[in-house]
Write a structure and sequence with these properties.
The structure holds 2 protein chains of 2 kinds.
Chain A (H helix, E strand, L loop, with lengths): L5 H53 L3 H27 L2 H4 L3
Chain B lengths: L1 H9 L14 E6 L3 H31 L2 H28 L1 E5 L2 E9 L2 E8 L3 E7 L3 H6 L1 E8 L6 E7 L1 H17 L5
Antiparallel strand pairs in B: 1-2, 2-3, 3-4, 5-6, 6-7
Classes of the chains: A mainly alpha, B alpha+beta.
């Protein structure tokens, strides 16, 4: 039997619940979200490499080289913007409690 | 160094894999620009989707605190569109017909990993015909060029080529000079 009064015990249980929610739900979900974003970026840059390789390796004349340069520049800009926007997300505010 | 790098984007030779030493590229052909403009227009329309969604649901997203998530998802959408645009442009750019003074090479690019290369030597060319079908092809001056080879071999059809009559003339001229033994150009 605990020697603490009932009110204090309720507060301890409540704190315990909060800790459990944060540790068991929020933490793995945040990691999952980060891993998903990383995988997405890896797939994007993998495909970007394949397209750039095709344009520079098999392209004949000036046009493919120009396309490759524009594509690379645009990819850096758009994925940079996506990374910044990803960093702005507060995943804890999205997760339903 | 930088000047040399910039020159690549200004003046790259029309050389290709397997080109012979004395072989001159007379024409490098791609499908008419109109054929790529249609998918590009669709991609541009797809670019408007996050903007329209954002305008329509901004107050809801703002109330739910999902604005940052929405911007991130939109950026992923734009990454996808950027990739799709250049996938289409890559297929369009690599799908070429090369006419040299020795032969005709048809690079039929259907996917990044699906490529069909056919070759036809000038002395095997029997006749060349062009086909322009429809209002758009007539006004924009593009169409199919069909090259008939000797014997019962297959036909070579180059689809949606710009200025098909000019292409036909150059192919015929190449075949004629090859037969007569006089070097073209």
């Amino acid at each position: 039997m605990s020697s603490l009064p009932e009110e204090e015990l309720t507060a301890v249980y409540h704190l315990n619940d909060i800790i459990n929610i944060n540790m068991t739900y929020s933490f793995p979900l945040e990691i999952t979200f980060n891993i998903l974003a990383a995988v997405l970026f890896l797939i994007y840059w993998g495909l970007t490499f394949i397209i750039l390789y095709h344009l520079t390796r098999f392209g004949i004349g000036v046009q493919p080289k120009r396309f490759a340069a524009i594509f690379l520049l645009g990819s850096v800009v758009v994925s940079g913007a996506a990374i910044i926007l990803f960093m702005n997300i507060d995943i804890n505010s999205i997760i339903p409690k | 160094m930088i000047k040399k790098l910039i020159e690549i984007f200004r003046d790259s030779p029309n050389s290709f894999d397997g080109q012979e030493k004395d072989e001159i590229v007379l024409l490098l052909l791609r499908r008419h620009v109109f054929t790529i403009l249609v998918p590009l227009a669709l991609f541009i329309l797809a670019c408007l989707l996050p903007i329209i969604t954002g305008v329509m649901f901004y107050s809801y997203l703002s109330a739910q605190g999902l604005v940052n998530l929405f911007f991130f998802v939109s950026s992923i959408w734009y990454l996808g569109i950027w990739l799709a645009i250049f996938y289409a442009l890559t297929i369009y750019t690599l799908d070429t017909v090369i006419i040299t003074d020795h032969r005709i090479i048809d690079n039929d690019q259907r996917g990044l990993f699906y490529r069909n290369v056919s070759e036809l030597h000038s002395h095997r060319i029997q006749d060349v015909s062009t086909r322009t079908n429809g209002v758009i092809e007539t006004f924009l001056n593009f169409g199919d060029v069909t090259v008939q080879t000797a014997g019962s071999e297959k036909q070579f059809v180059f689809h949606q080529m710009p200025e098909p009559v000019k292409v036909k003339d150059i192919i015929m001229q190449t075949a004629a000079t090859r037969d007569s033994g006089v070097k073209a150009l």
